[in-house]
Amino acid sequence: MERYRVAIVGTGGIAGSHMQACQELRDRVKVIAAVEIDRARGASFCDQYNIPRLYTDVTEMLEAEKPDLVQIATPPATHYSLALRCLEAGAWVLCEKPLCTSLAELDHIARIEKQHGIYCSSVFQWRFGSGAKHLRHLIQTRTLGRPLVGICQTTWYRDQAYFEVPWRGKWATEGGGPTMGHGIHLMDLFVWLLGDWDEVCAMADTLDRAIEVEDVSMAVVRFKQGTLGSIVNSVLSPRQESYLRLDLQQATVDLRALYSYTNQDWRYHVIEPGSQEHSSIPGEVVASHAAQLAALLESMDRKEQPVASTLAVRPTLELITCIYKAAASGQTIRSGSIAESDPYYYHVAGKREPQPQ
């Protein structure tokens, strides 16, 4: 197994999670450089984590260091251009959510991946915990019957001061409110567990925060296998919780957590006593950046598409885009209906932008 050379782009709060993952996997990766436009903050970060070189320009870093993997931990509006530059320089990418802020950008990234034969992976660490993997296996094998009803609730709290950071709360720089920036993790897990979805209707509003984007959204989604799901995303909820519930023909399975989960956070209520054994989750892998990074490194070893690669997460970004369109139009929006002729293809708020070339 190769030990890969890694660069970190962005040294803000979430970069600490990336560095923790790298430290846990130090036998597989070596962090050789960081990029930060604020030199003082970058220097402090490098000192803290013993990173040998600091750059203020990503292109300069890519040319000088030629990393195998770049981990992007910058604000959302920068992800797309940074991911492209890294891929074109020959580096694999692990990028914070959202990977990009439009279907047009995502499809362009996928084309660049194909051209260069390497991949960009979106940080969706909730897919990689042992509890989620176990439940997905049970769903796919119909061990507990078909999933019938789903609940996906990200009810978090962010006060007004949180949005005083210049890039937050704006369509151009954050790409959306809790639908895009907070509930995206649990919604991705919801879609990953239940598979392709068919149609969605929704409402969204800005009820209490002085921001451009929504501070709450609610949606009802029908999956192609027939499951009906309810989705709530909020930053107005003082008792914070991430809650997922699936009612299958033979069991209810639910998860209560906040930013991560362990096996103990999953609960199974099984109708048939003999099926109780299925609630025993094998192994213990916490949903974390380290769990996803470990899986990505294995994909790099095999030179194969990662679990959360660009095309693999497209259904999640498409659902988010359709929620915004459904909320704005008051219509039910079907999967696959947002094509290149649709303004929502270029912007989740329907603000047409030039198509990436």
Automatic annotation (TrEMBL):
Residues 134-241 form the GFO/IDH/MocA-like oxidoreductase domain. It comes from the Bacteria. InterPro entries: Gfo/Idh/MocA-like_OxRdtase_N, Gfo/Idh/MocA_Oxidoreductase, GFO_IDH_MocA-like_dom, NAD(P)-bd_dom_sf. Coiled coil: none annotated. Residues 5-120 form the Gfo/Idh/MocA-like oxidoreductase N-terminal domain. The lineage of its organism: Bacteria, Bacillati, Chloroflexota, Ktedonobacteria, Ktedonobacterales. GO terms for molecular function: nucleotide binding. It comes from Ktedonosporobacter rubrisoli. This is Gfo/Idh/MocA family oxidoreductase.
